[in-house]
Write the structure tokens for this entry.
Amino acid sequence: MKVAITGSSGLIGTALAASLRADGHQVVRLVRRPPRGPDEVRWDPRAADAGDPAVDGAGACVHLAGAGVGDHRWTRRYKAEIRASRVLATRALATALAARPKGQGPRVLIAASAIGWYGDTGGREVAEDAPAGKGFLARVVQDWEAAADPARQAGIRVAHLRSGLVLGKGGGVLARLAMPARFGLLPRFGDGSQVMSWISLTDQIRAIRFLLEADGASGSFNLTAPNPVTNSELTAALHKAFGRPDFSWLRVPEPVLRLGLGEMSSELLTSARVLPARLAQAGFVFEYPKVAAALTAELKR
């Protein structure tokens, strides 16, 4: 199958492209810069002449592009970038795919989303049927998923990936936490009791491919392992994975986090126990359902 991917240079996109190619699939990378190889096609959804991405013959499109939520302090300008890079880009892509002549475009659109949909649930269990929460990210995710409506209305199967913290070596949250953990100096954030819903990079890629191939799988899916952990448990597991002692007294108080990071601190302090109910119902089986095994495997890659 020919698969077009946006955001293919990120942690998830790079791993997905490699996985698909290893199994003989053709990957077309939609990039905003000038193409650097035969597998790349330039397409900037916010350019005045964006037009239609060249996805002729592609059976599927995986849309992963978006500004990193944890990359910068959430100034008014950067919050606008977070929203535009998700909502406007998704709408542009969905509209372009919907406008293609029948049979000449992808039959399925797998679109990135996030568990930010649920907001802070206080650690209460939530599945895909839970209502949207409150706050900046929850509003962004609602609009992000709705932006794919043109593709949905055109009969394209659309599945949204409500991803948790993706634990993979070389990028994302694990890259930021691993450095202090190597020295036994990773602190708890706040009191450490907030529930963090996570997924290994291995299972993230397996779940995306599962949804690519699962006819009829549409709507939102929580890409989170079935065993969420508290921040304290994740910190202890990381220290153990590096063979370091875990000092439970080492922590950054919540007021200090809010002062240093501003509104972005909510990413470290939000508590939501998000369960992959629809993936389980569809028959997906996690390779790494427990965080200790997931960290050991991912850090060895």
Remarks:
- The mean pLDDT is 93.
